[in-house]
Amino acid sequence: MFWFIGGILAGVLLSCFVAWLVLLLTHGRTLWHAKEQFRRLFQDAPVAYQEIDRHGVVRRVNRAQCKLLGLEGRQILGRPVWEFAAPEEQAATREGVQRQLAGRFPPAPVELHCLRLDGARLTLEIHTTPIRGWRGHIVGLRSAALDITERRRVEESLQHRTEELARKNQELATALEAAREATHLKSRFLANMSHEIRTPMNGVLGMAELLLTTPLSLEQREYAQGVQHSAEALLGLINDILDLSKIEAGRLDLERIPFDPLAVVEEVRGALGAHAQTKGLALIHRAESRLPGRVYGDPMRLRQILMNLAGNAIKFTAEGEVVIVTRVVADDAEAATLRFSVRDTGIGIPAAQRPRVFEPFVQGDGSTTRKYGGTGLGLAISRQLVELMGGQLELESEPGRGSTFWFDLRVPKCPAGTVSAAQAATPSSSPPAVPPGRYRILLAEDNPVNQTIAMRILTKAGFEAHAVENGRQALDALAHGRYDLVLMDVQMPEMDGFEATAQIRQLEGALRHIPVIAMTANAMSGDREKCLAAGMDDYISKPVHGQQLCELVLRWAEHPLECALTGSASRPSPGTATSE
Ligand code: ADP
After folding, report:
1. CA 555 to CA 465: how far, in whole Å?
2. Which atom of ligand 1 is nearest to the CA of 347?
3. Best substitution site from 307, 363, 372 to test ligand 1's pocket, by max atoms within 8 Å of Cβ?
4. Residue of higher predicted confidence among 266 and 424
5. Which of ligand 1's atoms lies nearest the C-alpha of 379?
6. Are 488 and 519 in contact (CB under 8 A)?
7. In whole angstroms, how far apart are CA 247 and each of 198, 265, 358?
8. Is the per-residue pLDDT at 420 higher than 70?
């Protein structure tokens, strides 16, 4: 019995042992499989992995890590991990590793540099996790390294580009500032030049005009007219250069006043008719009958464009005709689109030169200047003016047969009954009738020649005039005598025209108001406004035309109130007065 029970027990124990053994073997195989799988995963992972022990020594490394460092596994294993960092980062890397082994992990992945065997410098982003023992304490570190060398290179070059862009922007801003300053200086230079040239021009033109009113022999008259024409040509050139610089500086403002387009074209034809006739050319104006009577726009600038186109047409045509055509190309209740064209039978412009003739200072060819004169500014200014008015200056030409320039302008129509300013401004051809000695004029002008001219013009017209040399003397004269009007130069020694006007206005108070007209060589943008803002009533720029001056003075002397109520009596026209 005892043996029987013992036999059963031994059998049970044996089966248990066999079962345990089978279990152990199965478990061991599973474990071996898991380990093998991990080893493969670790080795074949495309990410560079390595493991270090608690002393920082590399204990396991995968293929990707070997490839990354350009080393064999045996060259890595057994070495402290910081030895693979770039020399200047080894100390910091060692400290970092020790901190992590002590359980202090940085919040973000660490970035470090290392030198590959081939000498290439790599930038690596290291993600580290702890390896823990069975009691949970850190026994080593496992890290994955990402090669971010290329990313950093792109980022650095981007950063470099951004900095370069910022530097370029800064340079551009400085250049822009310098250009603005240069434009400002150029404008100031032009204003000064304009003033300096206009003062003697006033002398030349004024004296020639006065000379032509005296008894002269035929020969003397011819010479005096020669002086007058040359001075006018020079003045035209100065005005062209001023216009161009104003356009370039964006400081040319167009007027918007009522005018009759037909009258403007007729005026151009009238002004150039005699010249065309002397060349044996017919200057014809064909106008469509349904042209609107009054429109809004800038008649002086339109006149300037047409004068230039028709003047060129006459200049470059030896025989035949010059025809100005004005017609309506579109019409509605509010506005009309007018086409102005100037056609000639002249020398024409070769196709290659056509686009260039609109550039400043460009002429057809080298021989043009010698044969026909000119500066090459007219078309550049005309084109810009047409564009400012919202149109486009077009050209069609056939060498040897002639050219046609044309442009379309959309002009708002004026309500019926509007007074045409252009007509009101057109200077009359006969001298104004001044009742002799009725009006006393005070002239403040420091330049002796210009003083003589203005005095002669005024006294010849019938005004009683008294001249002083500066603003202070003008104040004295006004304190001791009665005057109907002051003609005030602006730039004068001791006291200038602005200061003198300010004092006049202060002294007379609210009860009296003597008209003060600026007569100045300042003809740049804003000069007119400056004079009016200083308390002057009107403005005329030098060189002054005798008849225009007398008409202006008479208007203010006769009807000061009316002139003050209707605003400026004088309308500047390009070429003679300010064009702002
Ligand atoms: P300018 O007449 O002072 O030379 P423009 O700017 O008015 O300057 O004209 C530039 C050039 O265009 C002229 O030099 C000339 O060669 C050419 N041109 C202008 N108008 C005509 C025309 N009607 N016929 C032939 N050539 C012309």
Report:
1. 16
2. 25
3. 363
4. 266
5. 6
6. yes
7. 20, 24, 14
8. no
Q: Which two tokens stand for residue 561?
A: 């109130």
Q: Look over the chain and give the mean of its residue pLDDT values, rounded to a whole number.
A: 87
**Calpha distance 551→39 (Å, rounded):** 110
What are the tens digits of pLDDT across the range 326-375? Answer: 999 999 888 999 999 999 999 999 998 898 899 877 776 655 555 666 67
Q: Tell the residue nearest (CA) to atom 21 of ligand 1.
A: 312
Query: What is the pLDDT at residue 251?
Result: 72
Does the pLDDT of residue 31 top 90, yes or no?
no
Residues 6+ apart with CB under 8 A from 354: 395, 397
pLDDT for the residue 375: 72
Residues with CB under 6 A from ligand 1: 308, 312-313, 316, 344, 346-349, 357, 363-364, 368, 374-380, 403
DSSP state of 525: T
Please give the number of the atom of ligand 1 that sits closest to the Cα of 405: 23
Does the pLDDT of residue 87 top 50, yes or no?
yes
The length of the chain is 580
Give the integer Cα–Cα distance in Å for 33 and 56: 29
Amino acid letter, 574: P
pLDDT at 200: 86
- Strand order of the β-sheet with 48-53 is 58-61, 48-53, 138-147, 121-132, 110-115
Asked if residues 126 and 113 have their Cβ atoms less than 8 Å apart, the reply is no
Per-residue confidence (pLDDT) for residue 329, from 0 to 100 = 94
Best residue among 379, 383, 395, 403 to mutate for probing ligand 1, ranked by most atoms within 8 Å of CB: 379
- Give the distance (Å) from ligand 1 centre to CA of residue 395: 11
Q: What is the tens place of the pLDDT at every residue in 174-218?
A: 999 998 888 778 777 777 777 788 888 888 988 998 899 899 999
Q: Which of these, 68, 75, 65, lies nearest to 42 by C-alpha position?
A: 65
Q: How far apart are CA 381 and CA 247, in angstroms?
A: 8
What distance in Å separates the CA atoms of residue 121 and residue 188, rounded to the nearest whole number?
Answer: 60
| Backbone dihedral angles phi then psi of residue 519, each to the nearest 5 degrees | -125, 100
pTM: 0.58
- 313 C-alpha to center of ligand 1: Å? 8
> Which residue's structure tokens are 């540099």?
113
Would the pLDDT of 162 be above 90? yes
* Ligand 1: residue whose CA is nearest its atom 12: 357
Would you say 65 and 74 are in contact if contact means Cβ atoms under 8 Å apart?
no
Of 247, 312, 372, the one to substitute when testing ligand 1's pocket (max ligand atoms within 8 A of C-beta) is 312
Judge whether 283 and 270 are in contact, CB under 8 Å. Answer: no
Q: Which atom of ligand 1 has the smallest separation from the CA of 402?
A: 24
Q: Which residues contact 388 (CB under 8 A, 6 or more apart)?
A: 247, 252, 254, 301
Q: How far is CA 4 from CA 7, 36, 112, 165, in A?
A: 5, 47, 75, 100
> From the CA of 372, how far away is ligand 1's center (Å)?
9
Q: CA-to-CA distance for 332 and 253, rounded, in angstroms?
A: 27
Q: What's the pLDDT band for 230 if we cut at 50, 70, 90?
A: confident
Cα–Cα nearest to 200, from 162, 174, 227: 227
Kindly give the number of the ligand 1 atom that is closest to the alpha carbon of 348.
Answer: 25
Tokens of 78: 């057994």
The dihedral sign for the CA sequence 263, 264, 268, 271 = positive
